[in-house]
Amino acid sequence: GVFFIMSGEGSGTEIKDLVLTGGWGYAGDGFTKGGAIFIEDSSPTIIGCTITDNQSFAGGGIFCSSAASLSVMDCVISDNGALSGGGIYCATGCNLAVTDSTITGNVSSQDGGGILVNQSSLSLTGCVISENTDNGGSGGGLHVQEPVNVTLNYSIFCGNSGGQVDCESGTNCYTNNGSGISDECGTASVIVALAR
């Protein structure tokens, strides 16, 4: 991994305007997590970064858990790979807000090519989640296992392989506020443009 943030850092801790690449994650319990960024019990802000070509067991680009509160703004998270959560893995107790960011080209072998959420809160606002791949499970764009609160605000889910948004419970596990969800990106873009 490139950054391990796990000592109670607050929102004043910023990772800004960097390219994070070639990371392999934090292996504290024998499984690598967070190819570029591992966050636990902390609340940093990631601004204007490109997180690309990282690998791990969970969360190829970013992994957050255990009362972490993470804000991601104006970032590109692309071409990362993991067993689960190719771009981002949002694990138990994480509160994740992603704004005006693009999550694309990430790959998972099980669930959540772009993002995987499990017992966590997720808010996406003005984001594009496209062209991610889930090779073995479901939710090429977003896979929700056990949500606490998942809200999609004026975002685009399109062109993801393995499905756009998947709810493991089989029910509607998220709130959609003006987001476009389509197998074809042109259609979803039009929906969101009209909604905003």
Backbone shape? globular
Strand residues, percent: 35-45%
Over the alpha carbons, how many angstroms does the gyration radius reach? 15 Å
Largest sheet: 7 strands, parallel
Q: Name the poorly predicted regions.
A: none
Structural class by helix and strand composition: mainly beta
The main sheet orders its strands as 1-4-8-12-16-20-23
Instruction: State the end-to-end distance.
Output: 37 Å
- Give the beta-strand count: 25
Question: Residue-averaged pLDDT, rounded?
Answer: 91
Number of H- or I-type helical stretches: 1
Write a concise keyword list for the protein shown above:
single chain, 196 residues, mainly beta, 1 helix, 6% helix, 43% strand, globular
Model description:
The chain is mostly beta strands. The chain has one helix and 25 strands. The protein has one helix spanning 185-195, and strands spanning 3-5, 14-16, 19-21, 37-40, 45-47, 50-52, 55-58, 62-65, 69-73, 76-78, 81-84, 88-90, 95-99, 102-104, 107-108, 115-117, 121-125, 128-130, 133-134, 142-144, 149-153, 156-158, 165-167, 175-177, 180-182. A seven-stranded parallel beta sheet has the order 1-4-8-12-16-20-23, with no helix packed on it. The protein has a seven-stranded parallel beta sheet with strand order 2-5-9-13-17-21-24, with no helix packed on it. A seven-stranded parallel beta sheet has the order 3-6-10-14-18-22-25, covered by helices on one side. The relative contact order is 0.12. The model has no long low-confidence stretch (mean pLDDT 91).
